[in-house]
Design brief:
This protein has 11 helices and 18 strands. It is α/β, with parallel strands linked by helices. A hairpin with a 2-residue loop joins strand 3 and strand 4. The longest helix has 18 residues.
Length: about 500
């Protein structure tokens, strides 16, 4: 059977559903009873295309607490990125919306005529924001500002080394239960108390003459990585076919494939190994570019035999990050896995003096228990939802969202969520529908999983909290997300008798 016919047969129920209730229309759908609404929602979730999948749904009124709809609401599901709701809510409750990371620069030695006769030590606290995410400048903008600060303090040369102290976090950068397929993926970058540029590096490839090797550069340009590539320029007008990988236990990036002459620029990112050494290497290179001469090298402080006491440290500069409320927006709106994992370890360090995933999860569960969430059947093994071992129930998510509305941090939590059709990971969904600029929710998506949990308001002004998760879904991903979005549309147009 021709492919196009097979595809049409696969999506035919989807097309019928779209005709029955188009998201394009903003006209209110008259629903006169809760029973009718429930029947209509059953029609969505009973769609034959989902016969082999498993739906978990809980929809409640924030006004009355009434359960509007439920399906397997107490069963355990893989939540994908909806797990970030637990991480970010706990971070707000433990750290507060104005919390900021501090990265401290110390010198050991005296400054004589513009020369530091000794070492520079950078002490990290897990700041994930040392990058260009909060400005439109280069990734090294923070390091450039540090260089300017040192020069203003009279330091133009360093005779010793630059050391990094990353002891605030453990050295286990990858989460438990992360698929081996994620290795070197930028969205699964390792954590670190000293982290730079989301612990990833950008690869930029431009074509050369036909048959020639393409031009490959890294951003930032750094000696930390060694790029080995064999990307050939072809005449054919086609999409780039490029594979990028970080070779195990090396700093070598391997790039292979083809790029068409008509391609202006191909960009991708890859996660790096050894965040601390990456941080220090680019820092040293930036300092030198800015005119500070470094006679020594860079290293992790724990790899040395140095036994500096705190009395020998002379405070030189303290870098303060943007406040947590902005960090949460990056985490939730853009579903930033790296930020979520850094936050989880920060929570652990704040509560138990050492940043580990175990401590972070323990701290989160304590907060969730205080909010009334039953954590006995909550399986949380990372902060981002990347792990295939995480298991939560729709009721736990809805309870979390409900309890957050009664905290003083609710507005900051609410503002961190993507807005349907407007921004973040919902920017391309719910456009030109009643759900646009109404739904505030966190999407989750991974292999065979699609989820959406958050808040919306009906045409009659009733606030609704919801969680919808589908697991074991092997069909067309867009059908699952379309169904979820259509349910939001239905709920928004629900008016009680």
């Amino acid at each position: 059977m021709p492919y196009k016919i097979v595809l049409l047969l696969c999506i035919f129920p989807f097309i019928l559903s779209a005709q029955k209730d188009s998201l394009i229309s903003k006209q209110p759908i008259p629903i006169t009873s809760l029973a009718e609404l429930r029947d209509q929602l059953d029609d969505y979730f009973n769609e034959p295309s989902f016969n082999d999948a498993f739906w978990g749904v809980l929809i409640k009124s924030l006004k009355t607490g009434e359960v509007i709809y439920k399906r397997n609401s107490d069963k355990l599901f893989s939540p994908a990125s909806d797990l970030k709701l637990f991480t970010t809510a706990s971070a707000l409750q433990i750290l507060g919306p104005d919390f900021a990371y501090e990265t401290n620069i110390y010198r050991v030695g005296d400054v004589v005529k513009g020369t530091l006769k000794g070492d520079l030590i950078i002490v990290g606290s897990g700041d994930p924001t040392i990058s260009n995410r909060f400005n439109n400048k280069s990734a090294t903008i923070v390091f450039e500002e540090w260089a300017d600060t040192l020069k203003k303090k009279g330091i133009w040369e360093i005779t010793g080394n630059i050391y990094g102290d990353d002891s605030y976090f453990d050295k286990i950068g990858i989460g438990r239960g992360w698929s081996s397929d994620l290795e070197s993926k930028w969205y699964a970058a390792p954590t670190g108390a000293l982290s730079f540029n989301d612990n990833s590096i950008e690869i930029q490839i431009t074509p050369a003459q036909e048959g020639r090797t393409a031009n490959v550069v890294t951003v930032p340009k750094t000696s930390f990585v060694n790029v080995v590539h064999n990307v050939i320029t072809i005449e054919e007008n086609s999409e780039p076919q490029i594979e990028i990988s970080f070779l195990k236990e090396t700093n070598t990036i391997k790039i292979t494939g083809t790029i068409s002459r008509s391609t202006a620029l191909f960009k991708d990112r890859v996660a790096i190994a050894d965040p601390t050494l990456y941080f220090l290497t680019v820092l040293k290179e930036t300092f030198e570019h800015k005119g500070i001469k470094i006679r020594g090298t860079v290293d992790n402080l724990e790899n040395t035999n140095l036994s500096y006491s705190i009395d020998e440290y002379t405070p030189t500069h303290t870098h303060i990050s943007v406040p947590l409320r902005l960090i949460l927006k990056e985490t939730n709106k853009n579903s930033n896995n790296f930020y979520a994992e850094q936050l989880l370890k920060t929570i652990g360090a704040e509560e138990y003096d050492f940043g580990t995933t175990y401590n972070g999860v323990k701290a989160c569960k304590n907060v969730l228990s205080e909010l009334g969430i039953n954590t006995e059947k909550l399986i949380m093994v990372d902060g981002s939802g990347l792990s295939e071992l995480n298991l939560v129930t729709p009721r736990q998510i809805v309870n979390l969202l409900t309890y957050m509305t009664n905290t003083e941090n609710y507005s900051k939590f609410y503002e961190s969520l993507p807005v349907g059709g407007v921004d973040g990971t919902l920017i391309e969904r719910m456009k030109k529908s009643s759900a646009e600029n109404n739904v505030r929710a966190k999407p989750g998506f991974s292999n065979y999983v699609s989820a959406l949990s958050g808040y919306l308001r009906t045409v009659s002004g009733e606030s609704i909290v919801f969680s919808m998760i589908i697991n074991n879904y092997l069909g067309i991903p867009r059908l699952a997300t379309y169904t979820i979005d259509n349910v939001c549309h239905r709920l928004i147009n629900f008016a009680r008798n």
